[in-house]
Design brief:
Oligomer: homotetramer
CATH topology of the largest domain in chain A: Arc Repressor Mutant, subunit A
Strand order of the largest sheet of chain A: 1-2
CATH superfamily of the largest domain in chain A: Winged helix-like DNA-binding domain superfamily/Winged helix DNA-binding domain
Number of strands of chain A: 2
Largest interface: A-B, 29 and 29 residues
Distance between the termini of chain A: 19 Å
Radius of gyration of chain A: 17 Å
Shape of chain A: globular
Largest sheet of chain A: 2 strands, antiparallel
CATH architecture of the largest domain in chain A: Orthogonal Bundle
CATH class of the largest domain in chain A: Mainly Alpha
Chain lengths: 130, 130, 130, 130
DNA sequence: GTGGTCTAGACCACC
DNA sequence: GTGGTCTAGACCACG
């Protein structure tokens, strides 16, 4: 499988978002171990330091904790914390601008739904088993 | 009036988007001159070079054309070009990720509309006359 | 008729080149009056000062001279002066870079001739009577 | 080695053309990294911003792509893209005027070839190994 | 180490 | 008055 980066965002940010998505989607449950830095680095052909930086961000967000010698694990309550924090951030920071753009471009709900559906298919390769 | 920058995006990008919005909203019509680099720089208390960079981006996007010694002017067809290009870009690049987030956070259309409405009020100060 | 400016070069330069071309082509003979500043400005929808600047350049090049109250006239020997000076300038300044580009792009004499022929047709509107 | 600027064109434009030439000549192959902004700036004794401007132009031309923290790299297909684009641009924009001048000055192919040959010798210092 | 953004200030060409 | 180019120097984010 080939991994693609949208270069608009730093890689470590994209890695962080990826993990967050996995938690929200229930792919990673509380108590589960995160995939090891080395593995991720190898699979995504990225510098291990970059992965580490992403993971450490998650620690300061209190979403995961590290057990020395064992690895990093999803914290209890991580999912709820995320649901609260991310909703807030999304609704106040991201959504307003997106909504303005939608209106400005005169996009109909129909077009939006169609576009969303089309792109969803390309991203469910790794998601099948939950 | 006070101008605020959301520091996530570079200023010149925000300036560019501002002009694009004015064209899409019909505030700037085709053939109209853009506010001069110096004026914008003074009003927004920004370095002229930064404004220039934004404007030159618009030139390479063929939205704007410069007449030597006179200033920069909105090109014919700029609005249509924008409507086509920006819709395309938005639907394929920005929207899919936003839609995924919405679904992941379990946000309802109701919440979205409410949030959009709340933030719209803060931005219609200067827009009254068309 | 519509006049178009290639904005890569300043207008006054293009005006100057236009007159030079007319002299070289024999459209303007020695002793002939140059079209009046006012007329040119009106026809080309350009600021008269811009035309004046072009004409004054020709004076310092000793190609034309001004007779107060009468206008500006092509000097004796202007054509020969041009043939010498322009050839020299063209062969040392312009041509070497053009030749390099031609070689780099692998353009054949055939393609060049065809392209030249195609564009010649668009410019002989004003040239018919000599 | 001493680097000279022909002051008729802005430096950043000359830098851009230099890179384009290197791609066309095969000195820079697809996937190769461009010399770093800082290095070029130092070597040519130019402000880094100027080099950056040249490079960013290449990015918007899609000839080059930047990898965060690593540098800028020649895109796949850059050479072909150039061959198509530059030929087109040259034949329609530059060549017609040059051809007109040649004809006007009554220059013979012989004179042109001689002039081209003379200037070629001054520029093949660094090109030997491919 | 890489590129990216911004500032302050100078100078130029053009209209 | 307009935009355009360049410099010098600072600071930042990224890998």
């Amino acid at each position: 499988m080939n991994h693609e980066w949208h270069n608009s965002q730093p890689i470590y940010r994209q890695l962080r978002d990826r993990v967050v998505a996995m938690i929200l989607d229930g792919v990673l449950k509380e108590g589960d171990p995160l995939p090891s830095v080395r593995n991720v680095a190898a699979e995504y052909r990225v510098n291990p330091l970059t992965v580490l930086k992403a993971y450490q961000g998650l620690v300061t967000e209190q979403l995961v904790e590290t057990k020395r010698g064992l690895g990093m694990f999803v914290n209890d309550g991580a999912r709820n914390l995320l649901l609260k924090g991310e909703r807030q951030k999304f609704l106040t920071e991201q959504w307003p601008r997106v909504a303005a753009t939608i209106q400005r471009l005169g996009l109909t709900p129909d077009e939006l739904l169609k576009a969303a559906a089309k792109h969803r298919s390309s991203s469910n390769t790794a998601k099948k088993e939950h």
